[in-house]
Amino acid sequence: MHNLDKWIINNSLSRQLFAKKINISTATLSRYLSGDRIPKQEIMEKIVKITRGSISPDDFYITKNNNIFINNFKKKHLLGIEGLNKNEISSILNRADDIVSNSKINYSKDHIYRGKTLVNLFFEDSTRTKTSFELAAKRLGLDVINMQIETSSIRKGESLLDTAMTLNAMRPDILVIRHALSGTPHLLANKVKCSVINAGDGKHEHPTQALLDALAIRKRKNKIKGLKVAICGDIAHSRVARSNIKLLITMGASVNIIAPSTLLPSGDNLLGAKSYTNMQKGLSGADIVMILRLQLERMHGTYIPSAKEYFKFYGLDRNKLSYAKDDALVMHPGPINRGVEIDSELADDINRTLILEQVELGVAIRMSVIEHLLNNSEHKNNV
Ligand code: CP
Q1: Which pLDDT tens digit goes with each residue over 184-243?
Q2: Which residue's CA is minimally distant from atom 3 of ligand 1?
Q3: What is the C-alpha to C-alpha distance for residues 256 and 123, in angstroms, rounded to an integer?
Q4: Mutation probe of ligand 1 site: the residue of 121, 124, 128, 234 with most atoms within 8 A of C-beta
Q5: Exposure string (b/e) for 46-68, b if CB count within 10 Å is 16 or more?
Q6: Residue 242 and residue 157: Cα distance in Å, rounded?
Q7: Which atom of ligand 1 is nearest to 333's Cα?
Q8: What is the pLDDT of residues 305-323, one digit of tens each?
Q9: pTM of structure
Q10: Closest Cα to atom 6, ligand 1: which residue?
Q11: Could you count the other beta carbons within 10 Å of the beta carbon of residue 75?
């Protein structure tokens, strides 16, 4: 039973009454609860408010037929870090490590995945993620289609689901999607036959970013367990922060999140991280300092007085970095905004920052994820 159905029963309501409270039809609510649709942001916010946080957006990202399989990686899709266990995360990291370090793995000769197809469907801008999925798939011998949204039939009014079903009819093996609406990859996973990879959905998750960040941390620090990671910046609007917090805590690290109070998530939504508004306190003893940009594209309103003021209190420079451990390393998922969330000279210091290393490892992580999904035995039976 869906958690919201349980909440409705526990509060002596009916679906009909609850739908009325949030101003939608009972049929629409039923579609949300069956996983056929996902609530828009404003509806989601009403649900969270009425249930006083008992129901979170994650409750709506249900995937039908999310089959459990026999090998280490037990998912048909990669929709988030949510739901991945330690073994599954380690399996993806270990394979990526092999790819990076084992020159004997020569995919271009073997072409073991020849005939498989990956479709990139990016409704939001991307440099790193889109390019590295393309490169990763090509290195594995897959055919890659980059859907050009601006010249596709979406411009003629075709819905996202109709577009997805059209692509599905061409029988791709993997669909990689980025979309501004949280939960879109989960919705598609319910509709299409192929594997779906979430390349970033709204404020929700960006799982391959968290995986590549974990690989970068593990390569430099030789472990994740026991480390203290400080994530600083616009946490409230960040899918990177959500995926990273989930992954790092699953793998045994502790996480501090640091931001002005306007850019912190609400108190019951910290996912196990400790929150700070003071950089000195939040960075104290950190092994890794992860910096996030201000995600203006997801902000509706004014959250900071000015970029200059923000940099003064929260922009990472050498002085603020000195609050962390002496050997602390700086990470940033990119794109970076120099002089806003990070000092330009520090951003270029390859002895302290891993920014380009993160990009490089992103290709190996995405190769590993593609391999995990393609090698999933049950998935092979399904397509
Ligand atoms: N880190 C990240 O997702 O970058 P892009 O937006 O360039 O893909």
Answers
A1: 999 999 989 999 999 999 999 999 999 999 999 999 999 999 999 999 999 999 999 999
A2: 129
A3: 31
A4: 128
A5: bbbebbeebbbbbbbbbbeeeee
A6: 32
A7: 1
A8: 788 889 999 999 999 999 9
A9: 0.87
A10: 126
A11: 20
